[in-house]
Structure formats: structure tokens, C-alpha cells
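Inputs:
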Amino acid sequence: MHEYSLVSHLLDLLQELAEEGQWPPPIKVHLQVGTLRQVVPEILTSCYALCAEGTFFEGSSLELEILPAVWECETCGHQWEGEPGSRLCPLCGSLESVLSGGEELEIVSVEVLQ
Amino acid sequence: MPKVVPVKRSILEKDQRIADGIRKDLAARGVVMLNCIGSPGAGKTTLLEHTFSKLQLRVGVVEGDIATERDAERIRRSGVPAVQINTKGLCHLEAQLVQRALKELSLDDLDLVVVENVGNLVCPAEFDLGEDRKIAISSVPEGDDKPLKYPHLFTLSEVVILTKTDLLPHISFDKARFWEDVKFLNPKTLCLEVCAPSGDGLNAWMEILSEWCHAKRQKGSS
């Protein structure tokens, strides 16, 4: 449901960066999305294509890399990948863990025509 | 051959800057802000109305709804200033909208700002509004499976309030399972049960609010 909102934030930032860097026309936008962001990849990419119409980014595609949730144990420092609620440390059994990955929403790079 | 331009920027950085700004501003004023999230009909506004009728704190409210001024009007009737945001279709609040609404409240005269997010268990959990804490509100008629079905919200919330507990005798709701799942997702969560109209469980909730506001004011003045 919030994909449209994310795409508007994404296009605003891209527009700013394109103007600053005087980019040639872009072909692909590489985005890292943490699994906890509850994004539906197909909706995000089709929403991007739709919203990019009529802008400098029209015709470019969104390439998504989905990153796993990563937990870090505050007791023993062990890190592991898991779903939400996987905060029980498999090594020492502690429940004192924090998320260290899985909430990313980052533009990694943009492919542009030379 | 295409050329790769490295970027490495978060798409929510602008929104995050606004949220961080709100947090800093409220810290300087010693005001606590809560982001209340729950389904439509979970009893969020009813909980707030009954809380404010007895609470000895100076409170302001930001109401988020897709349409109508109804919730803000209800809150104002309990003597509390309320600003209504109509998102006109957006399924959650964002920091920019909250920043605008906060300008309409006299923050220096408040101890607590409660933001009631748009009724939804998914999207509101994704956006930082600059709050101190997220509060998940879940009602008995929604069923006991909500924590595991919407894990992100329950993982991030520091308090989970189960509302409409007077309906427990009439509905198949496994309370032990509900709280077990909540604790599985976040063992540090504070668990509260309330029936707002009868006042059951409200005292514990009000005590927590008072403690938070007292602690933040002390931190601000130290």
C-alpha cells in the first residue's frame, strides 16, 4: 500500500541527484530494499514505471535487491538472518537482540547512457 | 556501454531529516510524542478520549485519517486541543505532515503529544514521525492472531494495548496466545489490557504516560 509513497520519495531524490550530477538519460536504478519494509516488489517496480512517465526517468527500470532481516545479539555479539521475531539468539539463547539489517531503502547506483 | 553512477542514498532521507528535527525540537521542549497505530475500529480514539478525561497532563493530539474531521472533534470535546490531518488516500502519516500539524499546537504548553495514525497495521509502522515511542493498539474482536500476521508493527512497538477486553467472554480469543506472540516478537514490550468505557486498565496506562513525561522533562532540564 505504501509503494506509491516510496516511489514519490525515490523520484524526488533521483531528480535532485540528476540535476546536481548532470546525468545523461538513466536506464536502470538499483535499489536495495530490506525485507522488513513490507514492500511488494512487483507493485514497486510497476508503480515506478508509471510515476516516471513524463519525467527525466521515463523508460528506465527499477532493479530491486531484497536484503534479509539481520539480528545482532547484544549479549554475545552473534549475527544471524531471520524473519521478524527471530530475535532469540541461536548461539547463546539471549532475547536481547537488535535489528542491524532488513530496513534498508537505498539507491545504490544508477546506470546511465554514456 | 552504460556507465554506473554510484549513489548510496536513502530514499527516505528527507523524511528522516524532518523526523529527526521533530525529535530534537520536542526533546528541547521536554515534550513526549507517541505514535499510536492500530486497525480502523480498534478503539484508538475511544482509548484517547477516556484517557484524557482523567489524565493530569497537558496533552495535544494529531489525528490522521483519510477523510473527515470527526476524530479531532471527538478529542476536542474531551477538552484537549487536536489537529486533524486528512491524508486524502495516503494510508499512513509521514513526518512532513506531522511537522505541519505540530505548528498548530502550543508545544511549550504541553507535556505530551499523541499522534493517532491512519487506521492500518502495515504502512504506518514504516514511517518515522519523530516520536519517542510507537504504541500498538489491538482490539479483542480483531482476533488473537494479529501480532504474528503483522509482525513489523509489534516488533517496533514499546507498548501493546489490548482494547475492548469486556468482549472477552463473548468472543473466541486466546489471550495467552496473543501475549505470547507479542512477547515473542518483542520481549521488552509493555503489555496492557483495557476496557476504555468502563475504565478498566486505564490507571496503569496513565501511570506509564506520567512516568514518561516526568522523565523527559527532567532530562530536558538537566
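Chain A touches chain B at residues 1-2, 5-6, 9-10, 12-13, 17, 21, 23-24, 27-28, 31, 36-38, 83-85, 87, 95, 99, 104-114 (CB under 8 Å). Flag for discussion at group meeting.
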